Input
Amino acid sequence: MYLTQGLHRAMQQRPDAIAVRFAGRQRSFREFGERVARLAGALQRLGMQAGDRVAMLSLNSDRYLEYQMAVPWGGGVLNPCNIRWSPAEILYSLDDSGSAILLVDEAFRGVVEQMRGQSKSLREVIYCGDGPTPAGMHGYEALVDTAAPVPDAVRRGDDLAGIFYTGGTTGFPKGVMLSHANICSSALAAQAEGMVPAGGCYLHAAPMFHLADMGIATPHWFAGNTHIIIPMFTPEGVLDAIERDRVTSVLLVPTMIQMLVDHPAMRKPRDLGCLKCITYGASPISEAVLNRAMAAFPGVDFVQAYGMTELSPIATLLPAFFHTAEGRERGKLRSAGRASVCMEVRIVDADGAEAPRGTVGEVAVRGPNVMQGYWNKPEQTAAALRDGWMHTGDGAYMDDDGFIFVVDRMKDMIISGGENVYSAEVENAVNQHPAVAACAVIGIPSDEWGEAVHAVLVLKPGQGVTGEELIAHCKTLIANYKCPRSIAVVDALPLSGAGKVLKTRLREPFWQGRQRSVA
Output
């Protein structure tokens, strides 16, 4: 199995069908494949060799799709950069992965120009925007036009396909190593579950740097479906694309769904009857929002996918049936579903033994979708991967039918707006403020984001800080979505006998009366 396999099949069987539409541009599978082969040749000409990492920092575009295919076609390894990160975090991911080539669009050109001289690994920058090519960068279209197409290197199976950075419990991002087999097995499982019928149009509304979008989009390559792209999520942009391009399938995180169904644009008359399926995941959805969404999109299947980057990304699925009135009577709507095809899921205790049904433990997953490990982090890899099982850090129980119900988060992580926020990263940033003596960061309930980042502070004697000042300080060090949205000042943090901060005690007032301790 290899990432470009679906493209080859579509080029052979549907060469003149539309592969991609973006911003008034559209290309057939034949045209798209030819451009991918040329871009792969251009990357090789710039020095990309087998296994070399190539990064991209960009909003969604047709060129992003070409990058996702051309890098493995030419023998390289993907490193999609998180567009919501601070320059310091992006720089870390470039140097940690050893990315020598970076593609950047107009939205992030200035960021790259500022940090380019600070990078230890970066040699070549390709400008993939639509404006004039900046000095010191290569023009994307010029490279594609002048490069000779090269044959597919056919990196496959256990060959590394990409390094996908996610937050780190130690305060630094971790590079998740995913092979071609990892990503393709997850994609083929989604197809086997009936999520991706042929003849459809998939809308890239979620950010394309995120494996959630790439993971859901990959089976659409195998199905030979059309890819519709908008630069970034906006409610009107999604609705316009569905109506204009006859979109049949889209992935949205719960925060996006809430913003979509509550937006005034939903009240305008529209022809959205083409839409067949909304897949949601990355964080749980409230039943109230789900009910509003199902009322706004009658006849559309809603499917929940649970997983993580380390699982390529799907582990379990809650099919559309369990969202219907008949299905809800089975009592599974608050679950995260059951193990997808070719994945094993179990709930384990502290010793790694399977817990009895109904008993809360840690979710562990085994299968061809499980990551190879964390880039250059053998200790963290060994802690997460044990006897072939990926220990997710999510606390859950399994019922007698194999459905898992997530109730808590065993690792110190917050999910806000579908993005993972590790408390250690935020605490590292907060503690660098000169007024802060100590801090603890927790997730608290948020109707808008699911969970919001909340910082509990102990200040140095005679010092003071406002929430606005602390947030401004944190924005210089970490991504905006990781920054605290609220703060509380206390005289001392509650500690265990071993001297560890008792975050359960800090969370308790916020989560009282709720069925679980995560949103």
User: Anything to note?
Assistant: The CA atoms of residues 128 and 141 lie 8 Å apart. The two ends are 36 Å apart (CA to CA). The chain is about 30% helix and 25% strand.
